[in-house]
Design brief:
The protein is mainly alpha-helical. It has a single domain, classed as Alpha Horseshoe (Serine Threonine Protein Phosphatase 5, Tetratricopeptide repeat), CATH 1.25.40. It is 66% helix and 0% strand. The structure holds adenosine-5'-diphosphate and magnesium ion (2 copies). Homodimer. The dihydroxyacetone kinase complex is composed of a homodimer of DhaM, a homodimer of DhaK and the subunit DhaL.
Length: 211
């Protein structure tokens, strides 16, 4: 289990590769309940992020890397998810500023900062069929009451399982935020694209951390 920041760029590359590989899937899911651009939006954001990251020194700290990913999304991606992920990455970066090792508490802080930013801007709550239905269960796995007595590795595996369950749950509910809310109950039966992109990113991070 890699806990240091030394390989942060490799971890980010793994996340980007996973999103790029699922671009068509994310776009197809979004076409069922929205406007069919979520994969394209994610790909555009990460392509812009890659350009910015290439300018950074190879040992740039996690906080700085997250900041640049966030700025890339804010400056290059329109619509709902782009600015929401953008501000979430920026705030997540701030939450781990100065950190050279990530422990359970840093994961909790990082995700809480991102979730808070998304909720302040987008006003969604858990159960509205959004990316938050994946991200909040992931974060909850790192809360002291759930993490007690567990290693970081165990918490990360629990978080992935919780994220999967959360993303799967979005199939069963009607959208109350974003474009999919326009079709309301007709979105039942289809997973939320943002919940899936959040799961894809975290799953790729876990895959990288497992080695
Ligand atoms: P757009 O809907 O503008 O085309 P995207 O397709 O890129 O943007 O992203 C759609 C995703 O954004 C949704 O699947 C949902 O997860 C997320 N989303 C939309 N509105 C909100 C919101 N208010 N809060 C949190 N997430 C949201
Ligand atoms: Mg869309
Ligand atoms: Mg759009």
């Amino acid at each position: 289990m890699v806990q240091t920041m030394a390989n942060i760029r490799d971890a980010v590359d793994a996340v980007i590769a996973a999103v790029m590989a699922q671009k068509d899937y994310l776009t197809a899911v979004d076409a069922k309940t929205g406007d069919g651009d979520h994969g394209l939006n994610m790909a555009r954001g990460f392509a812009a992020a890659e350009e910015r990251l290439a300018e950074l020194p190879p040992d740039a700290p996690l906080a700085e890397v997250l900041h640049h990913i966030g700025r890339a999304f804010i400056e290059n991606v329109g619509g709902a998810a782009g600015p929401l992920y953008g501000i979430a990455f920026v705030r997540a970066g701030e939450a781990v500023s100065g950190k050279t090792r990530l422990d359970v508490a840093s994961f909790e802080k990082l995700f809480t900062a991102g979730i808070d930013a998304i909720q302040r801007r987008g006003k969604a709550v858990r159960g509205d069929k959004t990316m938050l239905d994946t991200l909040i269960p992931i974060r909850d796995a790192f809360l002291p009451e759930n993490a007690e007595g567990k290693s970081l590795r165990e918490c990360i595996e629990d978080a992935l399982e919780a994220g999967r369950t959360g993303a799967e749950y979005t199939k069963t509910i009607a959208a109350r935020r974003g474009r999919a809310a326009l079709i309301g109950a007709r979105s039942i039966g289809i997973e939320d694209p943002g919940a899936m992109s959040s799961l894809i990113m975290f799953r790729a991070l876990c895959g990288y951390l497992r080695g």
